[in-house]
């Protein structure tokens, strides 16, 4: 597909701007470009066709099954989009006087109350722009808490080996030393290893429950006791909260601080670079350290300050509040129960041929290991994923978590029907048979997608990050 620059024809345009009704302002000569910008020139028709063609190449939850593990790619009701597009929300300015944005303030207050009820927290900030940003913010709260007590030796954050990769990265960015905790054979936290690691230098433990393997750690209260008795705090990664809404609350499990992914759990389109939102909630003891906000009234002198300009991605919060109010407590519970049911049903359908990385029931997601399949046929998890793309299904998450070899992680979510799950299961089983009968079909896949198999090693080592005029577009 050609780039806009390659389609450009000198003199083509599609301008429909009215004549200016204000005096023209002439910039000083030293502020003007010496050469015109190298912008593409196209007619309105060509521009429309270009973006329509791009949209046909884009795969989203509105196109088909999207079982991307750990990402909760579920359908987002249109009503939430319509509410977020109301002029009273889209045409405000963050520097307006507070009395002129009372409706926006009400949205933030209502969302904070609802999300605190859902998580068992006492206060919440909407400033963080995404999940990893929320992790970083939550860790700064933990650091501020210990420093306010004069406890500067607590510089270690414990992170299970099944954690999201952003957990150790966020901890390192916040200035902590990361201590890796091994998992037991059942995929849960090794309590003996935790006891050995927790001590006077422990600032906290980062954990998601259910974890990245899709397993609920039933020893969570004991985990919390071990960390708290050592003087540390518990941080809850909210990436998997969709599994326990209305069933269990992080605050009741013993967690002190939590981040939420509004763009995963609470109905904002997920992917494509944003916008996201990663609000951080905390228990009362950490409230003084929350990011400062003018709308919150008097700012605590112990606040960690602002982590983002103004009040965060406000329209994402509007969508989340619409989702919360439309479902209510019963609806949230039903959503989580259905997500868990769907995951277990799909796992059951696949279990005659595919091997689960860990036995037993899963929560909202599960991890398959294709290690045996690769040994038998030479077909890898990557090969199977590429073949799925050929059949109109977005591949699941590949090779994650790292503790599972040849991993495929699937999260069907609550918005998929039984019919869709059956179609997906049938295709997985069909490809399993093809891997044994005609493995070359999977090794050469995909055949029908706009992009075949790129040289991923070369792309990672020598990425082409900018367009150079005169060079042909690369598929």
Automatic annotation (TrEMBL):
Its cofactor is pyridoxal 5'-phosphate. Its EC number is 1.4.4.2. GO terms for cellular component: cytosol; glycine cleavage complex. One of its GO terms (biological process) is glycine decarboxylation via glycine cleavage system. GO terms for molecular function: glycine binding; glycine dehydrogenase (decarboxylating) activity; pyridoxal phosphate binding. Pfam families: GcvP2_C (PF21478), GDC-P (PF02347). Residues 453-475 are annotated as: Disordered. Residues 27-297 form the Glycine cleavage system P-protein N-terminal domain. Keywords: Oxidoreductase, Pyridoxal phosphate. It catalyses: N(6)-[(R)-lipoyl]-L-lysyl-[glycine-cleavage complex H protein] + glycine + H(+) = N(6)-[(R)-S(8)-aminomethyldihydrolipoyl]-L-lysyl-[glycine-cleavage complex H protein] + CO2. It comes from the Bacteria. Belongs to the GcvP family. C-terminal subunit subfamily. The glycine cleavage system catalyzes the degradation of glycine. The P protein binds the alpha-amino group of glycine through its pyridoxal phosphate cofactor; CO(2) is released and the remaining methylamine moiety is then transferred to the lipoamide cofactor of the H protein. The glycine cleavage system is composed of four proteins: P, T, L and H. In this organism, the P 'protein' is a heterodimer of two subunits. This is Probable glycine dehydrogenase (decarboxylating) subunit 2. It comes from Papillibacter cinnamivorans DSM 12816.
């Amino acid at each position: 597909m050609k780039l806009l620059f390659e389609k450009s024809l000198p003199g083509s345009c599609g301008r429909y701007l009215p004549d200016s009704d204000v005096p023209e302002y002439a910039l000083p000569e030293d502020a003007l470009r010496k050469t015109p910008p190298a912008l593409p020139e196209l007619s309105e028709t060509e521009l429309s066709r270009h973006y329509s063609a791009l949209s046909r190449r884009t795969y989203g939850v509105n196109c088909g099954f999207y079982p991307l593990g750990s990402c909760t790619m579920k359908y987002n009701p249109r009503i939430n989009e319509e509410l977020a597009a109301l002029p009273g929300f889209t045409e405000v300015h963050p520097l307006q006087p507070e009395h002129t944005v009372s409706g926006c303030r009400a949205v933030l207050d209502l969302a904070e109350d609802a999300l605190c009820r859902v998580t068992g927290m006492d206060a919440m900030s909407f400033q963080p722009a995404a999940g990893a940003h929320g992790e970083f913010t939550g860790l700064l709260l933990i650091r501020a808490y210990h420093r306010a007590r004069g406890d500067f030796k607590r510089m270690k954050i414990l992170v299970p080996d099944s954690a999201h990769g952003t957990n150790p990265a966020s901890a390192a960015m916040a200035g902590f030393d990361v201590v890796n905790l091994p998992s037991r054979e059942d995929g849960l936290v090794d309590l003996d290893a935790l006891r050995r690691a927790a001590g006077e230098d422990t600032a906290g433990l980062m954990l998601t429950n259910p974890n990245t393997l899709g397993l609920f750690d039933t020893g969570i209260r004991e985990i919390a006791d071990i960390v708290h008795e050592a003087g540390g705090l518990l941080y809850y990664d909210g990436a998997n909260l969709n599994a326990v809404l209305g069933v269990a609350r992080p605050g009741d499990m013993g967690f002190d601080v939590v981040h939420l992914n509004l763009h995963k759990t609470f109905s904002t389109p997920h992917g494509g670079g944003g916008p996201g939102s990663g609000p951080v909630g905390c228990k009362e003891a950490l409230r003084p350290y929350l990011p400062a906000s003018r709308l919150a009234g008097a700012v605590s002198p112990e606040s960690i300050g602002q982590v983002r300009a103004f009040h965060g991605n406000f329209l994402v919060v509007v969508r989340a509040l619409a989702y919360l109010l439309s479902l209510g407590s019963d609806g949230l519970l039903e959503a989580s129960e259905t997500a868990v049911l769907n995951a277990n049903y799909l796992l059951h359908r696949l279990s005659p041929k595919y091997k689960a990385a860990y036995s037993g029931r899963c929560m909202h997601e599960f991890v398959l290991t294709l290690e045996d399949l690769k040994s038998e046929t030479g077909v890898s998890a990557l090969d199977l994923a590429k073949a799925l793309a050929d059949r109109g299904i977005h591949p699941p998450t590949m090779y994650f978590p790292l503790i599972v070899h040849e991993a495929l992680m699937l999260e069907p979510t609550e918005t998929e029907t039984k019919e869709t799950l059956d179609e997906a299961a049938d295709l997985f089983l069909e490809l399993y048979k093809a891997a044994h009968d005609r493995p070359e079909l999977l090794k050469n896949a995909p055949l029908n997608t706009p992009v075949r198999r790129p040289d991923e090693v070369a792309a990672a080592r020598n990425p082409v990050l900018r367009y150079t005029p005169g060079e042909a577009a690369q598929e």
